[in-house]
């Protein structure tokens, strides 16, 4: 299983804080593309973390069973 966690405006858009999906041998990019299509996120700005580490390049990142993927809205500093 892959646990998806949604925060901020992404959680509002998905109407959920998290969901589990079956593990599939796909890349992070493929997963993000599917989520953008499913929830119409293409205009949303967000960062992606896997197991609490921000991913800089989602293109070549592979997912593993039991990964936790978080979609994080932009952070404001102060």
TrEMBL record:
Pfam families: ThiS. InterPro entries: Beta-grasp_dom_sf (IPR012675), Mopterin_synth/thiamin_S_b (IPR016155), ThiS/MoaD-like (IPR003749). This is MoaD/ThiS family protein. It comes from Flavobacterium soyangense. The lineage of its organism: Bacteria, Pseudomonadati, Bacteroidota, Flavobacteriia, Flavobacteriales.
């Amino acid at each position: 299983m892959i646990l998806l966690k949604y925060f901020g405006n992404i959680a509002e858009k998905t109407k959920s804080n998290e969901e589990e999906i079956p593990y599939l041998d796909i890349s992070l990019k493929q997963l993000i593309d599917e989520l953008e299509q499913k929830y119409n996120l293409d205009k949303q700005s967000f960062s992606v973390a896997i197991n609490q580490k921000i991913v800089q390049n989602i293109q070549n990142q592979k997912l593993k069973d039991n990964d936790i993927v978080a979609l994080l809205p932009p952070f404001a500093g102060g």
